[in-house]
Amino acid sequence: MTHGAREMDKGFLMLLGGLVLFGFVMLASASYPLALENFKGNGYYLVVHQIIFGLLPGLVGFVVATRIPYGIYRKYAGAMLVVSIVLLTLVFIPGLGLTYGGSQSWINLGAFSLQPSELVKLTFLFYLAAWLEKRSERELHDFSQGALPFLCVLGAVALLLILQPDTGTMGIIVAMALATYFVAGAPVKHLAFFGAIGAAGLAVLMKLTSYRADRFTTFLHPELDPQGVGYHINQALLAIGSGGLFGRGYGHSLQKFQYLPEVAGDSIFAVMSEELGFVFIVAFLALYTVFIFRGLKIADRAPDPFSRYLVVGIMVWIGVQAIVNIGGMVGLLPITGVVLPFVSYGGTALAVSLTAMGVVANVSRSQ
Predict the structure, then answer these.
(1) pLDDT tens column, 87-124
(2) How many CB atoms lie within 10 A of CB 162?
(3) What integer pLDDT is reported at residue 241 of this predicted model?
(4) Cα(139)–Cα(19) distance, integer angstroms
(5) Cis omega (within 30 of 0) on the bond before 33?
(6) Rounded distance, CA 265 to CA 3, Å?
(7) Residue 330 and residue 240 in contact, taking contact as beta carbons nearer than 8 Å
């Protein structure tokens, strides 16, 4: 049977479709008051915008990614690294870069804006998977041939994200890269070394930038400044706690009416919890967990190291991003501003995530 005749993993596709559909259902509810006020009474403006600039290009990207032999990404791995660096640099060009929420992480393309860091999650992973495939076990265990070049390239990407600043996305890319590096056979002592460098770097960043220190302090003591830096987490916890076991009912959130910041973005989980309640949220988390493990199962059966590293990286990226988003909303992690994959508003994030899922589906067809 030829590669093209084989079927993609139907279970994976069904889980993905369920997450995307659920995401739009929740976005329609969470974004309605915000859109009604800001877009001339059109309560579904953000949903339509998400369809046009997120779902449609994402579906195109998904289909293209399922049809392109994934080995092509290996061939252009070096170019992918250059693209990653260039994309992260574009945001600093005056007149092109856009600032939102304190981060200069977008570029202005006229009718819409683009968040390059979302694209870099995928382009950098293509480079990393190809680089790791070429390394023998001996090279990976050698610090100068394995850890040092890995650290230099990852450090360059991380530095550009810190300068934006976009610490949340940086953390996700670092986690994705380290997981892929570990699966490729890197020794645990190298990972421990990277962890020590990361902890030291984070401490320096908090020392140099007061807002990062404030976020960490608020994470530890959210009650200290409930009307200031602690406002977001306190409103999120209030929304989640108000949901109880079975929620207020779909569409009946009170916190989304200008109380909870970023209701359509990184706070959408809090709105979900308020409207649907604990029982339904547990079911949602179970769906997410099964989806991640289904993807990792595809990675386990991948026919070659390159495709295995790609799928592991993609699924870790989605899983860690979900953990960071939800952990921030429930007070287990600092709030970083990253969105909940397939659910939150964000056209670039949805388009790139769906394209990445096309890569995973393509690998599943080769098994």
Answers:
(1) 899 889 888 888 876 778 888 877 778 888 999 999 99
(2) 15
(3) 94
(4) 40
(5) no
(6) 39
(7) yes
